[in-house]
Amino acid sequence: MVEGDKARLVAWGRELRGVHDRLRAALRVTQQALADGEPAEPATRDLLLFCHGFCSALTAHHRGEDGELFPAIAEQHPELRQTLSYLRQDHSMIAHLLAGLQAAVDRTAPPTELARHLAGLAAIMESHFRYEERALLTVLETLTLDADPDVVLGPF
Description:
elongated; mainly alpha; about 0% strand
């Protein structure tokens, strides 16, 4: 086989866990930025910077899964279609929570309100990541998908 003809060998399970770990860390940094801020405006400014990066990364991750990863899994493992549907529903719920957080940041909500948004997002995100890892890691170890991990899982 010629080098250009080789399918890219990607350890998709390892890649997924790595992205999830980086997103968890980014959320902790975002929460710490809020906790370290002073009342209202400085905390909101710091959170706006962290939130923009975190929110963009999480959104890109879910778009990549929905558009690239989940269709490949469904094709190779049709028995997981219902699980993938549940995961897509989670993505929609998380997008709604992110929009609420972004709206609160945009209107300079008080730090206590911002902290509630982050806590709710953290709880749902962690539950989603754990379910996704339990349901898909074994399948991902053998998944054949010739694609760039940054496209499939987001550039984070």
